[in-house]
Design a protein that fits this description.
Blueprint lengths: L10 H6 L5 E2 L2 E5 L6 H17 L7 E5 L5 H14 L4 E4 L5 H11 L3 E5 L8 E7 L8 H13 L10 H7 L2 E4 L2 H9 L4 H7 L2 E5 L6 H10 L3 E5 L20 H9 L4 E5 L6 E4 L5 E2 L1 H15 L6 E4 L5 H8 L4 E4 L3 H11 L3 E3 L5 E3 L8 H15 L3 H12 L3 E8 L2 H13 L4 E2 L2 E2 L2 E3 L4 E4 L5 E6 L5 E8 L2 H16 L1
Helix pairs in contact: 2-3, 2-5, 7-9, 8-14, 9-14, 11-12, 11-14
Amino acid sequence: MPDLLLSNVSGHRCQEQNQIAFGTGGWRALIGEGFTLLNVRRMTQALANEIARQDRQSCGVLIGFDRRFLSRQAAQAAAEVFAGNQIPVILLTEDAPTPLITYATALRGAAYGLVFTASHNPPEWNGLKVFRTDGSLLLDQETSSIEAEANALSVGDVFALDLNLALRAGLAERRDFTNEYVDAVESLIDLQAIRKARLKLMVDLMYGVGQLTLGIVLTEARCRVSFLHERHNPLFGGRSPAPDADALRLLSATMRDDGCDLGLAMDGDADRIAIVDERGEYISVNDILLLLYWYLHEVRGHHGGVVRNLSTTHLLDRLAHRLGEECYEVPVGFKHVVAAMVEHDAVLGGESSGGLTIRGHILGKDGIFACALVVEMLAKTGQKISQLRERVYSLTGRLYQDEESIPATPEMRIAIPRRLREAPSDRVASYPVLKISQIDGTKLYLENDNWVLLRFSGTEPVLRLAVEADSPEKAAELLQWLRRFVKA
């Protein structure tokens, strides 16, 4: 097999050397090791220097933060550095969802939008996402340049102005964009249809930041809504704020006992979604994307293709072809999804980890909007999730995914690519390989839309193994083959 392109070195090694390193979802690091206020200031100074080089100081910057430990303090430290560089800064008044900051960045035309969050990572992590003026994430070449400059800066290279002085001088201001963002979401949702449906919902917030915005939307749509895990807890109940099946067992049991029509969940910064159907069954994000693409195309009448990353279900390909459209595959990282959506004017873009957006909305993941769109789908079709799944499966057939994450050492990042180069490339287990992609890790395509994927995560120090196959048994067999390959 050809050489793999290794885009990341070990996250832990970078932290030990006090180096800032961007991955697919921004900069993330362990608090107190890689994520420190000193590194926040160095990163912010590098961004301020880039703004000055582009002569865009008058555009200012916008800064938000989630509920993680040090997020608020990091946002204030960043605001002081921008102010010290004579760049006007808007600092959000309270913790807020990442999609709100994405929206507000584009609304204000800011040079950059920053949100201090580590998304779904464990509570001992924090990080930073940086958005361009249009609300899209920085591209790889941009993050590489900023990262290199930040790592070269010393504390003496950083200019900062005390936040209280900056506020009094007019270089900083505190703002809230909740109403503007909610209005933008509601403009894309049929609230009247939802009102008529009289739906009963339960939402697991996973101690994150989504309650205010989603609560307003669903309440104005006259839904009866109950919330779980809504209080502020920077330890997220002792686990990662990732809405997977295991984490949502309480939601499944509680909403089923209460006779709810739907259970909804979002991750810690509310840019990813998960749902539980009326029977309490966890619905994979792959199925959510499949249902929403069908709904947007066939019920709303929004024609166009769909974009997915290479670890997301090929059922989207099958559905797109049944509808006379195209499905476009991109590397992992929502910036790649958005870029392909813009290029191909696609209706929907999404990834199996829970992020999605649609044409005409923000250029980033939005769990708030996604939740509202799923609710609209139930209201407009008059059907339950279980019924809609069977309806779409009748068009696409079934495929089954399985996945696993293995802690990745620096040695593995050398050994596994070498093993992939040296191993025979014509078969996986007993199944012939039709083609190989190395746009992001190594993906082997098999017959009938089956595939296997090995890639190192861009957000955590792990190796991702993922497969999709005709049956659960075959998926388990393919995953076992990957495990043996990795451990050989």
